[in-house]
Amino acid sequence: MRIVQKSIKFLTVLAIALCSFHGFASDTDKKHDTQDDGGMINTKEEVEAYILHHIQDSHDFNLFSYTSDGERKHFGFPLPVIVWTSGGLKTFMSSEFHHDDSGHEIVEKGDVKLTKIHGKIYELDAGAAEVKFDADHHATNAHKVLDLSITKSVMGVLLVGLLLLWWFSSLARQYKKRQVPTGFGRVLEPLVLYVRDEIARPNIGEKHYRRFTGYLLTVFFFIWILNLLGLTPLGFNVTGQLAVTACLAIFTLVIYTASGNKHYWGHILWMPGVPVLIRPVLAIIELAGALVIKPFSLLVRLFANISAGHIVVMSLIAIMFTLKQSLGVVGATGLSLVLSFFITLIEVLVAFLQAYIFTMLSALFIGMAVEEAHH
Amino acid sequence: MDKLLNDFSPGLFLVQTILLLLLIFLMVKFAWKPIMDSLSEREEGIQGALDAAENAKKEMQNLQADNEKLLKEARAEREAMLKEAREIKEKMIADAKGEAQEQANKMVAQAQESIRSEKQAALAELKSQVANISVEIAEKVVRGELADKDKQLSLIDKMLGDVTLN
Q1: Is A168's CB within 8 Å of B14's CB?
Q2: pTM for the whole thing?
Q3: Residues B119, B126: Cα–Cα separation, whole Å
C-alpha cells in the first residue's frame, strides 16, 4: 500500500515536471544561432566552452538540448530571476532571456534594462540601449547586480535541504515508536552514527562534541548529497560553486572562532614556550592560519575537487566527439564510455571523501578551539 | 584567479548563507536533536541491559556457588551420618558379641563348675565305693587267705593296683 502511494506521488511529480518541460521545450531561440550547424557541440573549442558553461551556475534548468532542422531546442524549465537593481527588486522568469547568454537579449523591467552575459545578470547603464564590449569582452556600459535568483544551484540547495529534512525528520519520528528504525532509516542511522562516532567524537572530544554534532551532520550530508547529485545527469554543480564552498568554510570559521577558549587564543596570540621576541611573529602566522588559511583550504579543496571531477568526466564524455575522426565512431564512443565510467566510479568515491574531509577538518578545527589545557 | 573571482556570485553566497542557516536550524530542531537524544537513550538502555545481565550472571554465579556449598555441606552431613550409623552398627555388633561372649563364658564357667562338682561328687562316691569294695575285698581276702600273710598282702596290693581312680 505504501509503495502504491509512493509511486502515485512520484508519478504526479513527474507529470507536473514533464508538463513544464513540454511548455519550455517548444521555446527555441532562432535569433542568436550564428553557427550554421545550429549550435551543435562538436569542436574542441565548443566542448571547452560547454564544459565551462556547465561548471557555472545557471539561471535555467536545462536537461538537454538538441538541434533539429537547424534549430537549437532546449529541454528543461526556466527558473525565477530575482535581482536587486537600481530600480529596486525585480523578479521575472529566466525564459525572458530566451537562452541568450551573450548580452544581446535585453529585458526591460520598468526603467531598468537587464541582460545576461556568461551566466551573470547585468544592468545596463542609464541611457544605454545595448551592451558594448571592450577588447577582452567585458561589458563597458553595464554593471553586475545583486543576483538573488533561484538559480540551478539554489534549487539544488533547496532540493537537498528538503530531502535531508524529510529523511532525517522521519528517522527522528521513527524513534518515538521503536528503538531500531526500519526501512530507509536503517540506512541513515549508521551514517549518523558514523559522523558522530568517527568524526565528531574523536576530533572534538567527549566533553564538547554534542554541541557541534548538529552542524557537522548537516554539513556532511549537505555536501555528500550535493556531490552525488552533481554526478547525476541533472547536472547540478553546487559544491563546485565558490560561493557555496566559501559559505560553508565561513560557517566553520565562525563556529571555531566563536567557540575558541582561553587556551586556544593563548596559543595563537602569545605562544607559550617560545622566546618572547618570536611570539608576535608567531601570533601573526597563527592568526593568518586560523582566520585565513584554514577556511581557505576548506573552500578551495571542496571547490577544486568537485569542479575538477565535473571537468574530467565531461572531457572524457567529449572524447566521443573530439576523437571521432581518428578512432572512428565505435572506437571513440567505446573509449569514452569505458574511461568516463571508471572516472565516474572514482567520482562517487570522491563525493563521499570530500564530504568526509570537509566535515573531518571542520571537526578538527573546532576540536583545536575547544581543547582544554592539559599540562 | 580573475575568472574565479568573476565567477564568485555574492548573491548566491547570500542565498546560500540564509538557506544553510535555516537548514542547520531546522535540522537541529527536527532531526539531529531528537535523533541524538534517542540514540544516546538507546545506547544507555543497551548499556543498562548489559550491566543488568552482567549483574544477573554474577548473582547467578553466587547462587550457584551457594548451592554448591549447600550441596557439599549436605553431602558431608550425609557422610557423617552414614559414618555414625556405621559406627553405631559396629558398636552394637561388638557389644552384642561381647555380651554373647560373656554369656558363653559364664555358661562355660557354670558348666565347668557343675562338671567339677559332679566330678567331685563322683570321685567322692567312687572313693566311698572303692573303700567299700576294698573293705569287701579285704573281707574276702581276709576270709580266704588269712593263712598266708604274704599272699594276703600281695593280694591287697594287686587289688589296689586294679582299682583306678577313674
Answers
A1: no
A2: 0.75
A3: 10
